Amino acid sequence: MKAEIDRIEDGKHLVIYFEGGSQLVLPREALDFETYEGQHLKVKFSPDPESEEKTRERVRKLREELLNRTKERKEKK
Description:
This protein is an alpha+beta fold.
């Protein structure tokens, strides 16, 4: 996928346009290389299964906590 840095706003945010017309705004520090207006980019997304699993586990624990709270409240009534 190809994209271009259209502009840099306030020296802090990159406005990036992708082929097909989609737009993305990122903090400048999100990219680990020097950036400039008009710069062409090759973009590749890849899955992050480790991060996904951590998030799933965190959400599972939160759900469990909420269900336990609800159960405890019902038992007190």
